[in-house]
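Open question from group meeting: does this chain pack into something compact, or does most of it stay loose? Before anyone orders reagents, we agreed to write out a predicted structure and look at it together. Recording both the input and the output here so the notebook holds the full record.
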Amino acid sequence: ALTVILVAVLLGVAAYLLNTPSFQNRLMRAATTLLSRELGTRVAVDSVHVDVMRQDFEFYGVEIDDQQGRKMLQLQRLEASADLMALRQQQVKVSKVDIRGAQIMMVKDSIDSVAHYQFLIDILKHITSKKEPDKPGKKLSIDIQRLTLEDIHATLHASTTRQFDLKRLNYSNDLLGHTLNVDSLRFATNN
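Structure tokens returned:
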């Protein structure tokens, strides 16, 4: 009985520590340092809030540069709720994702050059193609129930400049099926 009480107290203390802003920000700094090193570029997050019990994650002031040091992605806010236990079965179950205030810059310096975001695609391809030799490959299943994109601005610089502005997009996947609502979408090009 004493062991059960001790384990419960330790789990309670761990849950409390995981929910404190100072611990979360320390963990966030370590994660962004690791991610920056793995990507070979600067990754920064102003602040983070994680509710471990509800499995809610909020990131504020997210910035990712390309490998030449140019701003590639800036997010004012990224909020997600996910079922972390589903990851053990190769499933990503996300009940909601809210992305607000995104600035996306995509650059392709010349027609023969590689796009500056190609390194991210290559890394993701490498990560998803890794399989343990002893285990049969099981495809990763992704289920997003609700997605909201708000105030999104993307610019593509290649031989011409193209801009994409989105005021709001709502996607939901529920018992009634898939629903997509778009409010104020603008696409512009200089050619």
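Observations to bring back to the group:
Residues 46 and 56 are 17 Å apart (CA to CA).
The chain has a mean pLDDT of 84.
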